[in-house]
Structures are given as structure tokens and as C-alpha cells.
Amino acid sequence: MTARKRYWLMKSEPDAFSIDDLQRVGVEPWNGVRNYQARNFMRDGMKVGDGVLFYHSNTQVPGIVGIASVASPAYPDETQFDPKSDYYDPKATREQPRWFLVDVKFERKLDRTIPLEEIKRHADELGEAFPLVARGSRLSVFPVTAAQWKLLLSLEKP
After folding, report:
1. Quick check: 76 and 100 in contact, CB under 8 A?
2. pLDDT tens digits for 59-74?
3. pLDDT at 3 exceeding the cut of 70
4. Are the CB atoms for 64 and 51 separated by under 8 Å?
5. 89 within 8 A of 99, measured Cβ to Cβ
6. Are strands 75-76 and 100-101 parallel, antiparallel or unpaired?
7. Which pLDDT belongs to residue 4?
8. Which 3 state secondary structure label does DSSP give 147?
9. pLDDT tens per residue across span 74-107
């Protein structure tokens, strides 16, 4: 029996790392996450083959722009050990790393961006706890149910 496939949404600012960047490189470590809940999702919840909605944040039209997949089990984020990195954590050690990441693999770009404003119009169907429509939620990595995944991707074709 195989494990049930899970789904996730991962946010990135396109000027830092965009869906086009992921398409160009194919597979990329999802480094720099410094939120414990998001880290725990990657470390404890993500499995190779899980689906990922790639979301562009902090841009003129934030929204879902592509699909990726989890390409590796979680492993320590090397940026936590590099004093020159913006993501350096002096409390992290190789014996006891604090921050983990997964590799993410490009699957496809969507035919169009599914804008946040459109996603918000489906808040009732997504559930009020869905982080993109919940007030004050700033998580960059969070789980998506199979039903939410299906609904969100149905919005690709207007």
C-alpha cells in the first residue's frame, strides 16, 4: 500500500525565485524558511511526490502560477550554517540543525495566474481557515486538501 499523496502551497517572491526560475533549473532546494510551523510542514509532513501549488507573493498580482512536486525528503538547510547568508542562524549546529528544507521539482506553469482576489471569492468553498483567505495568516508553506487542490486548479480555465 502506498502513502496517500498530500498537497501543499508554497509562496515565493518572484524577484527572489519565480516559477520561471524553477522551470529553468528543474529542481531547487526550498531554502530560507524561518517559520517553525512552515519548517515543520516541510520536515514532518512533506513526502517525495507530493503536489505543490507555486504561489507568487509580494507582487502586483499575487497568485498561483504553477505546479511543482516535492523531490526529496527533508534535510538541513545549509544557509543556517553560513554566517554570510541572510538566513544564518547562530543557534543552529550541524549536530542539531534548526531549519530544514525539501527540494522542489518543476511540473508546469499554469495557463494563467490564478489571482489572490479570485481565490478569495471562493473562501466559503475553501474554508475560512484556508491560509490564503484567513486574516493575518502569513505562512509561506502550508497544506492544501485534495478538495482545495482540485477547486483551485479548476480556476485555471476561466
Report:
1. yes
2. 999 999 999 999 999 9
3. no
4. no
5. yes
6. antiparallel
7. 79
8. helix
9. 999 999 999 999 999 999 999 999 999 999 999 9
Q: Look-up: residue for cell 501543499?
A: 8
Helix/strand/coil for 91 = coil
d(CA 101, CA 31): 6
Reading the block at residue 138, the C-alpha cell is: 502569513
Comparing C-alpha atoms, which of 120, 153, 148 is closest to residue 135? 120
DSSP one-letter string for 1-61: -PPPP-EEEEEE-TTTS-HHHHHHHSEEE------HHHHHIIIII--TT-EEEEEE-SSSS
The residue type of 47 is: K
Taking CA atoms, 43 is separated from 67, 73, 114, 125, 141, in Å, by 20, 8, 28, 29, 11
Listed residue (142, 148, 133) closest to 46, CA to CA: 142
138 burial (CB, 10 Å; 0-12 / 13-18 / 19+) is exposed
